[in-house]
Amino acid sequence: MIKRLTFADEKERKSETKPGESIDKLFIHMATAVAKVGKSVHRIFVGNLPWTVGHQELRGYFKEFGRVVNANVIFDKKTGCSKGYGFVSFNSLQALEKIENEQKHILEGNYLNIHKS
């Protein structure tokens, strides 16, 4: 979210901008840079995870397909138990293609449900 700064904020941050550049332009530039970075990350949903699988096990399984940027299993806040699904992010589209080309994904005896997200 881009916040529009007040005159007092702009006066305080003047030293962070180049001469002649407004704060609004600086924030637009930063938001664009973040958006460009976000496009290079490819994410999948992984369902039917065994309750024994954590973040490291999920990462370990998918690292054979490509560089894993993030692997996250979703846990119930009250019980601390796995909800049986998670998300894995890769930095390349080739990793997703390798995953799609493999017919079955089995982790600790469970067939995984995988979808692009």
The biggest beta sheet, please? 4 strands, antiparallel
The name of the CATH superfamily of the largest domain reads RRM (RNA recognition motif) domain
Strand order of the largest sheet: 2-3-1-6
The helix-and-strand class reads alpha+beta
Write down the CATH topology of the largest domain: Alpha-Beta Plaits
Shape: globular
Q: Domains counted in the coordinates: how many? A: 2
- Radius of gyration, in angstroms, nearest whole number: 21 Å
Strand content: 25-35%
Query: How many runs of DSSP E, i.e. beta strands?
Result: 6
CATH class of the largest domain: Alpha Beta
Task: Give average pLDDT, whole number.
Answer: 79
Number of helices: 4
Description:
This protein has 117 residues and is of the alpha+beta class. It is 35% helix and 26% strand. It has 4 helices and 6 strands; from the N terminus they run ααβαββαβββ. A 4-stranded antiparallel beta sheet has the order 2-3-1-6. The protein has a two-stranded antiparallel ribbon with strand order 4-5. The N terminus is likely disordered.
Keywords:
117 residues; alpha+beta; four-stranded antiparallel beta sheet; 4 helices
Helix-strand layout with pairing:
Layout lengths: L6 H7 L9 H17 L2 E6 L7 H8 L5 E8 L6 E9 L2 H9 L4 E2 L2 E2 L1 E4 L1
Antiparallel strand pairs: 1-3, 1-6, 2-3, 4-5
